[in-house]
Amino acid sequence: MTEPPAESPQGPAAPKAWWKRKAFRTAVTVVVIGAVVALFTVSLVRNWQDVQEQDLTPDWQWAVAIGLFALAVPWTGVLWRSMLLTLQPQVEVSRTEAVSVQCASWLLKYIPGQVGSTVNKVLWAGRKGINRGVVIITVIYENVFLQVASLAPGAAIVAAYLGPELFGDEPYVLLLPLLALVPFAVVLWRPAFHRVVDVVARRVLKRSVPREHFLSTGSTLLLLVGFLGPRLLNAIGFVVLTTSVTDVEPGEWAVLGAAYVLAGAIGILAVLVPSGLGVREAVIVAILVPFVGLPAAIVVSVLARLCSTVGDALVALIYVLTRRTIPKELRP
Q1: Are 267 and 279 contacting, i.e. CB atoms less than 8 angstroms apart?
Q2: pLDDT, tens digit, for every residue of 215-248?
Q3: What is the pLDDT of residue 110?
Q4: Distance CA 144, CA 150 (A)
Q5: Could you report the per-residue pLDDT of 280-319, keeping only the tens digit for each?
Q6: Whole-angstrom Cα distance, residue 161 to residue 9?
Q7: Rounded to whole angstroms, how far apart are CA atoms 275 and 311?
Q8: I need a labelling partner for 218 at 20 to 30 A (CA). Which of 18, 89, 129, 285 fits?
Q9: How many Å apart are CA 164 and CA 170, to the nearest integer?
Q10: How many C-beta neighbours within 10 Å does residue 109 have?
């Protein structure tokens, strides 16, 4: 009797390995969120009486903060369009269409690892007839620009305010938060970024990636400055929100705004946690405590999450309004 053929590595073993990876990611996500929620709960219980004393009467400043949080998204979409047209000048993409695609991708951020955001733009590019590889490269650039625009000024400002108090006679320690920017330098320098992508493309796709698919140094610097704008809107929105809850000296506004954008960047780096849920709040509380106290810091962090979520509802509205101006076959 003939022996049955041996199962290939791509057979039943492959789905099993896939489920193991998915189970591991899910477990890590649950553990991280659970730990953050537990820490928040302990802090909230210990300071519940002080938290209750915080004035949470709805304020017009909340609406301003929500609007600023929401407007940062279409601004990012306009910048992303500029980047796309720089790399593919022959492509026709209106600002409205770019804003619509960006808003849709933003609303998919709750899928861990930015997967939903990237897939949305790639599918749109396929319908539009745009080089999907170029779109993937622009997504990488976009995320790096936003991270650098958050980490560099955010870490520097927070270190300037809290560094001497925390590190005393060892000021060189203040540079440690900026070390997170080192890996991003590879993307910002065209020869290095092109080399990395080209090596991967040759091994996986068996073809090279043209150098023209990457930004020049001048374009990189201009776009990097441009991406400071959306982060500035986020920072101003958070300052407006914080001052509606507790008294803050004008001289501390800069560190409050820096705390929010820095916390957002760290939340994004926590790729296994949807939208940095809990991680961002923990960082905000840690930075704000010396300025507003623990009870107010907890309230502000939770309120910021609430307002940013309402801001996402405004982003959804912008998407609905702009989507109707795009032909059905091209809608993201």
Answers
A1: yes
A2: 888 888 899 999 999 999 999 999 999 998 888 8
A3: 65
A4: 10
A5: 888 888 888 888 888 888 888 888 888 888 888 899 899 9
A6: 56
A7: 14
A8: 129
A9: 8
A10: 17
Residue type, 311: G
Weakest mean pLDDT among 52-56, 108-112, 149-153, 227-231: 52-56
